[in-house]
Design brief:
There is one protein chain. By secondary structure, the chain is an alpha+beta fold. The chain has two domains: 2-85 and 199-234, 3-Layer(aba) Sandwich (Glutaredoxin); 91-195, Up-down Bundle (Glutathione S-transferase Yfyf (Class Pi), Chain A, domain 2), CATH 1.20.1050.10. It contains ten helices and four strands, in the order βαβαββαααααααα. The chain has helices at residues 10-22, 41-44, 72-83, 91-121, 127-148, 161-170, 184-194, 197-208, 222-225, 230-234, and strands at 2-6, 26-30, 54-57, 67-70. The chain has a four-stranded mixed β-sheet with strand order 2-1-3-4, covered by helices on one side. Helix 4 (91-121) runs antiparallel to helix 5, helix 4 packs parallel to helix 6 (161-170) and helix 5 (127-148) crosses helix 7 (184-194). The longest helix has 31 residues, at 91-121.
Length: 235
């Protein structure tokens, strides 16, 4: 059984997609980031960056004590190695999937996140910042589109953790001011993943964690989500 510390955000959905695709048993441990659950001492004890998702694997492969993992990319690699799924074992296949996984965690996620912040949430509209991150998001979409011109999935011919990491960050493409019609290969890939039964289940179960549908970012939660500093960590 996997304990998944989760809130329905793009990074959280990465893990539910894997768990549903792999058929692993898991249970949600909601971390309402808009209320500050990510700062609770019991959560920080194994997720020191005060970010979700994080997991506790209660049945690790070595048969020892439960294993904790934080950071979505690390969780995906851990689960892929645990199950032997969605990460090739051959040298070149593994290398390619990890390249695209790290491309997402180091590029697509952070740049799209800054896009969201400056376009949707910043208290003042800064045209330079908005243009900078909308354009960079578009550039990254272009990189994906080019890759997918000759490959069914980011890692090649089979679904991998690279696709699971990237898909949730394309879901809010309209908020990112991106038109999928401008990226036909990406659009084909996006629609194919969207229709996978495991992905449908992942989003349905994930959204049920927040049944009221309360937005993660609102006027009150901005003070928590966007007001952190070194002093926050030292508390």
């Amino acid at each position: 059984m996997i304990d998944l510390y989760f809130w329905p955000t793009p990074n959280g959905h990465k893990i539910t997609i894997f768990l549903e695709e792999a058929g692993l048993d898991y249970r949600f441990e909601p971390v309402n980031i808009s209320k500050g659950d990510q700062f609770k001492p019991e959560f920080l004890a194994f997720s020191p960056n005060n970010r979700m998702p994080a997991i506790i694997d209660n049945a690790p492969a070595d048969g020892g004590e439960p294993v904790t993992v934080f950071e979505s990319g690390a969780i995906l690699v851990y689960l892929a190695e645990k199950t032997g799924k969605f990460l090739p074992t051959d040298l070149r296949g593994r290398k390619t999937v990890l390249e695209w996984l790290f491309w997402q965690v180091g590029g697509l996620g952070p740049m799209a996140g800054q896009n969201h912040h400056f376009v949707q949430y910043a208290p003042e509209r800064i045209p330079y910042a908005m243009e900078r991150y909308v354009k960079e998001t578009g550039r990254l979409y272009g990189v994906m589109d080019k890759r997918l011109a000759d490959n069914e999935f980011l890692g090649g011919s089979e679904l991998s953790i690279a696709d699971m990491a990237s898909y949730p960050w394309i879901v809010p493409h309209q908020r990112q001011q991106q038109d999928l019609d401008s990226f036909p290969n990406l659009k084909r890939w996006f629609n194919a993943i969207k229709e996978r039964p495991a992905v449908v289940r992942a989003y349905e179960k994930g959204q049920a964690v927040n049944p009221s549908g309360t937005p993660t970012v609102n006027d009150e939660s901005k003070k928590i989500l966007f007001g952190q500093s070194a002093d926050t960590v030292k508390r």
